[in-house]
Structures are given as structure tokens and as C-alpha cells.
């Protein structure tokens, strides 16, 4: 039996070596959401750091919003699918309520896009999720990090920290992505696309 909870999974790599890199912006967004709703992420046997609560944005004043499971993997990006599958099974969450929050080199920095399904664009975390879930039809909140200038390899680029100029606006960008996640859960995909795709 499924329930009405949402799983929001921030893609990234573990440890201090990677925590400030472009590839980890999904995990930064999970940290922001956890801060907003006042939960701490706890390491679990599901190969994930997990926190559960409700959004404070219910449609009726005074009524709690939707229940959310916020999670990041304790393993590496290319192993993301296993933890997502375990969390979905443990919390009985359908695929259409599993939101992947991830970096995207195909859209400019400080740009947010949302979609359901589609390709992985060479993103190993998404590829692992698709394989584990057996479908591509799960929501994605895409955080633009842009492509490297010159001949820098894309794989190296996403594993580097944000530039000085990017770091100046990164907190606002992360807050905006968190807003997009909340909007998706409460108001749906079209509202997110109307607000953020037109920018």
C-alpha cells in the first residue's frame, strides 16, 4: 500500500572532498530544505542520510502540508539508484512522488528546470536511478551549472567547486531550487515550469 509522502533525493557524492562541488548541488538543496522544516538528516541502514517531516505549506491555514522524506546517499553518485529504491520500498512511495534534485550542465548556471522523465544526459546518478527504479518517469528538478569554458572535461568540471562569482549568488540559487521543490509538491509540475522556465 502506497502513502501520500514524497521522497526528495539530492544527488551527489559523500565526504568533504565533494561537498562544495557543482555535482553536489542536489545535496545542498536537501540541506536547505531540512533547515527550513527543522529536521536533521540521520545516517540509516538504507545507505542514506534521511530526515522526515511535513512541509509548512498546507493548502488550508493551520493544516500541515505534505509529508516529505528528504534524503542523500552515503555512497557515490553512480550508486544512487540502490538507496533510492530502498527508500521508496521502505516508505512505500510511488515513482511519481520521487523527486531527483541534480546538477545539469545543459542549462546555464542559476537556471532551474523541471520535468518528468526524459533522458539522463550523461548524468551517472540519474542513470543509476533509472536502472534501479525500472523507469525514467520520475520528477527531476534540474539545477543549471553550465558547461566548462575551453577544453576542460565536463566530468572534471562538475567535480570542481563553484567559481568565486558563482559562490556569491549560490545561497540564493539554492534557496530558489528549494522553493521549486516545494512548489512542485504543493502545486504541481506546470506551476514550476510557468514560474522558472520563463526566466
UniProtKB/TrEMBL annotation:
Organism for this UniProt entry: Brevibacterium aurantiacum
What's the short name of a Pfam family annotated to this entry?
Pept_tRNA_hydro
Annotated positions for site Discriminates between blocked and unblocked aminoacyl-tRNA = 13
Lineage, top-rank taxon, reads Bacteria
The UniProt gene name for this protein comes to pth
The GO biological-process annotations, alphabetized, read as: protein quality control for misfolded or incompletely synthesized proteins; rescue of stalled ribosome
The residues responsible for catalysis, as annotated, are 23
Can you name this protein?
Peptidyl-tRNA hydrolase
Cellular component GO terms, alphabetical: cytoplasm
CDD domains annotated for this entry? Answer: PTH
Q: Which HAMAP family match?
A: Pept_tRNA_hydro_bact
Does the UniProt entry include the keyword RNA-binding? yes
Q: Where is this site: Stabilizes the basic form of H active site to accept a proton?
A: 103
Give the binding site residues for tRNA.
18, 76, 78, 124
A GO molecular function assigned to this protein is: peptidyl-tRNA hydrolase activity
The job of this chain, per UniProt, is described as:
Hydrolyzes ribosome-free peptidyl-tRNAs (with 1 or more amino acids incorporated), which drop off the ribosome during protein synthesis, or as a result of ribosome stalling.
Reaction equations catalysed: an N-acyl-L-alpha-aminoacyl-tRNA + H2O = an N-acyl-L-amino acid + a tRNA + H(+)
Which InterPro entries does this chain map to? Pept_tRNA_hydro, Pept_tRNA_hydro_CS, Pept_tRNA_hydro_sf
Complex formation: Monomer.
Hydrolase: present as a keyword of the record? yes
Could you tell me the keywords of this UniProt record? Cytoplasm, Hydrolase, RNA-binding, tRNA-binding
Task: Quote the EC number.
Answer: 3.1.1.29
Question: What family does this chain come from, according to its entry?
Answer: Belongs to the PTH family.
Tell where it localizes.
Cytoplasm
Amino acid at each position: 500500500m502506497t502513502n501520500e509522502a514524497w521522497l526528495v533525493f539530492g544527488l551527489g557524492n559523500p565526504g568533504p572532498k565533494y561537498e562544495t562541488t557543482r555535482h553536489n548541488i542536489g545535496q545542498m538543496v536537501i540541506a536547505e530544505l531540512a533547515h527550513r522544516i527543522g529536521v536533521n538528516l540521520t545516517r540509516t541502514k538504507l545507505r542514506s542520510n534521511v530526515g522526515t517531516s511535513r512541509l509548512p505549506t498546507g493548502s488550508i491555514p493551520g493544516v500541515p502540508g505534505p509529508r516529505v522524506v528528504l534524503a542523500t546517499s552515503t555512497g557515490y553518485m553512480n550508486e544512487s539508484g540502490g538507496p533510492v529504491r530502498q527508500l521508496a520500498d521502505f516508505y512505500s512511495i510511488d515513482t511519481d512522488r520521487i523527486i531527483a534534485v541534480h546538477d545539469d550542465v545543459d542549462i546555464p548556471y542559476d537556471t532551474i528546470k523541471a520535468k518528468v522523465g526524459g533522458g539522463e544526459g550523461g548524468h551517472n546518478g540519474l542513470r543509476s536511478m533509472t536502472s534501479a527504479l525500472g523507469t525514467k518517469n520520475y520528477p527531476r528538478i534540474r539545477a543549471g551549472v553550465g558547461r566548462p569554458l575551453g577544453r576542460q572535461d565536463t566530468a572534471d568540471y562538475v567535480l570542481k567547486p563553484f567559481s568565486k562569482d558563482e559562490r556569491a549568488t549560490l545561497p540564493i540559487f539554492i534557496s530558489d531550487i528549494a522553493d521549486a521543490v516545494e512548489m512542485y509538491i504543493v502545486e504541481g509540475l506546470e506551476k514550476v515550469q510557468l514560474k522558472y522556465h520563463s526566466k
